[in-house]
Specification:
- This protein has helices at about 25-40, 65-70, 95-105, 125-135, 145-165, 185-200, 210-215, 225-235, 270-285, 305-320, 350-355, 365-375, 385-395, 420-425, 430-440, 445-455, 455-470, 490-495; strands spanning about 15-20, 45-50, 75-80, 110-115, 140, 220, 225, 245-250, 260-265, 285-290, 300, 330, 335-340, 400-405, 405-415, 475, 485.
- It is built from 18 helices and 17 strands.
- The strands form five sheets. Strands 9-8-12-13-15-14 form a six-stranded mixed beta sheet, with helices on one face.
- The chain folds into three domains: about 15-165, 3-Layer(aba) Sandwich (Rossmann fold), CATH 3.40.50.10140; about 250-355 and about 380-415, 2-Layer Sandwich (Heat Shock Protein 90), CATH 3.30.565.60; about 420-495, Arc Repressor Mutant, subunit A.
- Helix 1 (about 25-40) crosses helix 5 (about 145-165), helix 2 (about 65-70) packs parallel to helix 3 (about 95-105) and helix 10 (about 305-320) runs antiparallel to helix 13.
- About 40% of the residues lie in helices and about 15% in strands.
- By secondary structure, it is an alpha/beta fold.
């Protein structure tokens, strides 16, 4: 990266940028970004129209009208966020957030840069805005103008690569450096062919040698297996791709803190890693044996449908950003399962739009295709809607999806007592502690409650009876030492009826 002498640059398509921030607070940063882009030898070839409101002559239109009209005309929104939120309109939104909302609605590329590491000095509205933006996309932080320029440069180059403006091989299509055809597992190729044929998704005629199969799926580059080939069919993918593992962890409580009750890093080809990560997760969930309706074998169901767990893990492996050094994490807590995936939503999409029916948007199409053929994934763009439907069908809350820094996180709830639902019951602090105790230990007695929150027996009885009446707890037994309380199922039964 460097700032060369400014020169006129031409190319078939030049992208337009809208720079948004509180002008009075971040005026130097705004100006520096525009000048940097126009003078950089690479960026000036692609970005020649950078909008700053202070450069616009006075017009009859109101400022808000000018802002939003300019956002509509540009492909990229750059938001620079500092301590001040800015003046609010009648909707209670600052110009910067209003422009962000408009860019989101118009499916524009949005890049957010936050000044400073210390959030304590920010106005409350700005803190809230940063959280809202961070739930949708990665926020990059900077401390000075030089740091801002570096972050903007990296983000714009990434944008150009994803748009195909810079001719670079994507990760899945690039040759896996150092690998050979001998690194491909012949047995895994054979298993894949049988599985895909059994699913009715592959009828490969002619040669079925590893080289022929890889060639058929465009997994050979100049005679060398691609990264996708090694991930899917390699004998030891971690030999060449250290971030290919899926790391599974289990915590008995509801927080990620030591000691870790169980953890397992899974390595191997993508099919094997997915299967073992799903098995690890399902082993930690509660199983229920249902009444057999036909035949002697009673069906088994889990508190979270296996289909939803598998979909989330497959999505993480297939669509993650393999240029990131991070790896997929599957974390089982007492009340939820989280799947952490290095990467972001495709440009122009949001968490809300991905919840709705949409076409397939694979980040790594050469990885996704064999997973589809083997029945691990679909090509309908229905993954997230299916996960939502599967969880709602058994009375569970809808999964949550959020962007946490460079990771996209899917959260599947093990029970209906989420923080949002608990807030509706108006429980006191003691009762909330009891709910957390039961989620971790499975049950609580009156004596345990007295000791745990330090109250008298009458107070403990009143608190527990209230929890039972509200359906949060269910009382097991009537009197005596064996009487205890477990988590109520009323929410699940109610939810399963579609209410």
């Amino acid at each position: 990266m460097g700032m060369g002498v400014y020169r006129s640059c031409t190319m078939p398509h030049a992208y337009k940028i809208f720079v948004s921030s509180v002008q009075k607070e971040l005026g130097p940063e705004r100006r520096a970004i525009k000048e940097f882009i126009l003078h950089d030898a690479l960026l000036c070839r692609f970005f020649r129209d950078i909008f700053l409101f202070e450069d616009v002559p006075a017009k009859d239109q109101t400022p808000d009208e000018i802002y939003l009209s300019e956002v509509d005309q540009r492909e990229i929104y750059i938001g620079i966020l500092g301590n001040q939120y800015g003046s609010k309109n009648t909707q209670g939104l600052s110009a910067t957030e209003l422009e962000f909302v408009r860019a989101t609605a118009k499916h524009r590329e949005r890049l957010i840069f936050v000044k400073g590491e210390d959030d304590s000095h920010r106005e409350p509205e700005m803190k809230a805005f940063i959280r809202r933006a961070g739930a949708q996309l990665t926020r990059r932080r900077f401390t000075d103008i030089s740091g801002l320029q570096r972050e903007v440069y990296a983000s714009l180059v990434d944008f150009l690569e994803r748009r195909g403006a810079l001719r670079m091989s994507p990760f899945d299509a690039a040759a896996c450096t150092g690998s050979k055809l001998a690194d491909i597992d012949v047995q895994q190729i054979d298993l894949f062919l049988k599985t895909a044929a059994g699913r009715g998704r592959l009828n490969l005629r002619g040669q079925t040698s590893p080289k022929a199969v890889l060639t058929h799926f465009n997994l050979i580059s100049d005679g060398v297996p691609t990264n996708a080939a090694v991930l899917l069919f390699g004998r030891d993918p971690s030999r060449y791709l250290s971030n290919a593992q899926v790391h599974c962890l289990y915590f008995r409580g509801t927080e990620k803190r030591k000691p870790i009750d169980s953890q397992q890093p899974y390595e191997g080809n993508a099919f094997s890693v997915i299967d073992r990560a799903v098995d690890f997760t399902m082993e930690k969930l509660v199983r229920r044996v249902d009444v057999a309706s036909n035949g002697p074998i009673a069906p088994i169901s889990y508190e979270i449908p296996e289909s939803a767990i598998r979909e989330a893990i497959v999505n993480a492996v297939a669509h993650r950003d393999y240029d990131s050094a991070g790896f997929v994490q599957v974390i089982v807590f007492a009340d939820r399962v989280e799947i952490w995936n290095p990467g972001e939503f495709p440009p122009g999409t949001t968490i809300e739009t991905m919840r709705e029916p949409h076409g397939p948007l694979p980040r790594n199409p050469l990885i996704a295709e064999p997973l589809f053929r083997a029945g691990y994934a679909e090509k309908a763009g229905s993954g997230i809607p299916d996960m939502i439907a599967d969880c709602r069908a058994v009375g569970l809350p809808e999964p949550d999806f959020a962007q946490h820094g460079p990771h996209f996180v899917a959260t599947l709830w093990r029970d209906w007592l989420t923080d949002q639902r608990l807030a509706e019951f108006g429980l006191n602090e003691r009762q909330l502690k009891a709910v957390a105790f039961v989620k971790t230990h499975g049950r609580i007695t009156n004596q345990e409650y007295q000791n745990f929150v330090t109250v008298s027996k009458p107070t403990a009885s009143r608190d527990l009876d209230e929890l039972s009446k509200k359906g949060v707890f269910e009382k097991v037994g009537t009197t005596g030492r064996g009487t205890h309380y477990v988590q109520g199922m009323k929410g699940l039964i109610k939810g399963s009826k579609g209410s």
